[in-house]
Amino acid sequence: MAELFEDLAEQPVPVPENISAPRLRRPERDQLVLCPGSLDSLLPRDHMARTVEAFVGTLDMTPLYAAIRAREGRPGHPPADPKLIVALWLYATIDGVGSARELARLCTNQLPYQWLCGGVRMNYHSLADARLACADWLDQALIASIAALRRAGAITLAVVAQDGLRVRAAAGASSFRRKPRLEQFLTEARAQVETLKRELDGDAAASSKRQKAAAQRAAEDRARRLQAAVAAMPEAEKRATRNKKPAEKARVSTTDPEAALMKMPDGGFRPAYNTQLAAETEHGLIVGIDVTSTGADQPSLEPMVEQIEARTGCKPQTMLVDGGFFSKDNVTRLTEAKVELLVPPPQPKSEDRAAGEPVRDDTPAVAALRLRMADPDVQERYRQRARWIEWVNAGFRNRGWRQVVVRGLKKVRAVAGWQAMAHNLSCIVRTKALADVLKIPGVCPA
């Protein structure tokens, strides 16, 4: 039938005579909107920001308040409440925010951060300075919370797992230089600073003076970094010697002198820091943390045990670590300290050797370790290591612990401390017994 009407012209669709224009809801963006209510009414009652604020309220802020110079009856601009600073950085760390500029932006356009600020205006300079200024207090607060849980019997620290987590430094691989080159750069930088000083003293023009003053500050900053790089060269030479390389091949970064080239999980070598984490195996709480410039894990095992004992008043009964921590010295010293060490020893080359059988150059402590690790019951206990410490590492990665934006061991340790506090708070929120011990109001563990 279709072939009969091929030459027929297209017929218009009949339109009813009484049809009108369509009715639509169009946006009117210039009209005034009234939004009655408060920030408190807009934020859900079970939001994590409320939990952070409640947790911060239980912490002893006396050292932070004592450092404030603005006092009643004296001149000076009042700073933001330290509780606000701590709450902002703690919630930002949980949220995976590590930049002070990004945090300042969120304080103006994100409800949880606006709720925490409560109308207090923040800028990135004060946020960045405060994050690092709180480092010592943060370490003490971490110790106090662990000690309170231990006194209440909520944790025992009987078994502790430790692992190293490498984080990319804020430096480029091309910034590493050998000693002669560093000394040449330092001499040139000092000469440039002296030249800019003379030019600044002899220039009366205000605008030009400001520009040259800024150039002088930049030159002085570069000279300080180069001087720090030269000062860090002896340590880099020691690392090169330990790695069986000539000392003259040692290199130091002009951007971050304390960073070191380390082998990363993907097999590449990049400037990095080695974060050492120790967690108890009952709830996964971090009980020890450190940051080093050494890629190897062995030197960090014994200091971590000592740190845990100094923090909590008791040393762990058992340490669970991977094969990267094995050394004869570690095994011997921890055995003498009455700490059970569970670590896979190097496998002997002989394939016909029985499991647990000692090799010729084993010390008595290493021979006992081989025999212990061959026990199926001990192997079952050792499997708890990956369950807890690898989970801690994953939490750090998920919160942005892939590359730090600060430079220097002291600053990286401060940021790592915020990560540890954020991790412990997440553990406490999930466990009602821990939340009850610390008396955090309004926390409803999942």
Biggest sheet descriptor: 6 strands, mixed
Rounded mean pLDDT is: 86
The H/E string reads: HHHHHHHHEEHHHEEEEHEHEHHHHH
Give the % helix.
40-55%
CATH architecture of the largest domain: 2-Layer Sandwich
CATH class of the largest domain: Alpha Beta
Number of helices: 18
CATH domain topology of the largest domain = Nucleotidyltransferase, domain 5
Unreliable segments of 5+ consecutive residues: none
Q: Structural class given helices, strands, pairing?
A: alpha/beta
Strand content is 5-15%
The tally of domains stands at 3
Round the Cα radius of gyration to an integer and report it.
30 Å
How would the global form be characterised?
Answer: globular
- Measured distance between first and last alpha carbons: 70 Å
Number of strands: 8
Summed up, what is this model?
This protein has 446 residues and is α/β, with parallel strands linked by helices. Helix content is 49%, strand content 10%. It has helices spanning 39-42, 48-57, 62-66, 82-94, 100-109, 111-117, 124-133, 135-151, 179-201, 206-231, 233-242, 301-312, 328-336, 364-373, 376-382, 384-398, 409-430, 432-438, and strands at 159-168, 176-177, 252-253, 260-263, 269-280, 286-292, 318-320, 340-342.
Report on this model:
Strand 5 and strand 6 form a beta hairpin. The chain has 18 helices and 8 strands. It has 3 domains: 39-132, no CATH class; 153-170 and 260-412, Nucleotidyltransferase, domain 5; 173-253. The protein is of the alpha/beta class and 446 residues long. Helix 4 packs across helix 17, helix 5 crosses helix 7 (124-133) and helix 9 (179-201) runs antiparallel to helix 10.
